[in-house]
Amino acid sequence: MQKIRSTFTISDFIIDELNSVSLELNEKKSHIVEKALSMYLDYIDEKIADKRLDELKFGKEKLIPADEVFKELGI
């Protein structure tokens, strides 16, 4: 997996916490941030799935049968 450098702004409180955890665990801050973001994105995936299920349940969205999708794609 390729690593990409990125720049963003975070509150000083979060930076202080990150520095503290990094020292305590003797881990690189970038590694901690990457693991934390990965866990958060997994959580968000679950929230999105729940939202989509609710939309189906309340009729805001509809399912398209797989055979229709395959036919449209020529599969």
Q: What can you see in these coordinates?
A:
This protein has 75 residues and is an all-alpha fold. The chain has one domain. The chain contains three helices and no strands. The mean pLDDT is 95.
Annotation field: number of helices: 3
SSE class? mainly alpha
Report Rg.
Answer: 20 Å
Q: What is the count of structural domains?
A: 1
Order of helices and strands: HHH
The coarse silhouette is: elongated
What is the terminal-to-terminal distance?
31 Å
Could you estimate the helical fraction of the residues in percent?
A: 55-70%
Main β-sheet description: none
Low-pLDDT windows of residues: none
**What is the number of E strands?**
0
| Beta-strand percent range | under 5%
Mean pLDDT: 95
Write a brief caption for the model.
The chain is mostly helical. It has 3 helices and no strands.
Topology of this protein?
Layout: H1 12-25, H2 29-57, H3 66-73
Give me some keywords for this one.
elongated; mainly alpha; 0% strand; 68% helix; single chain; 75 residues
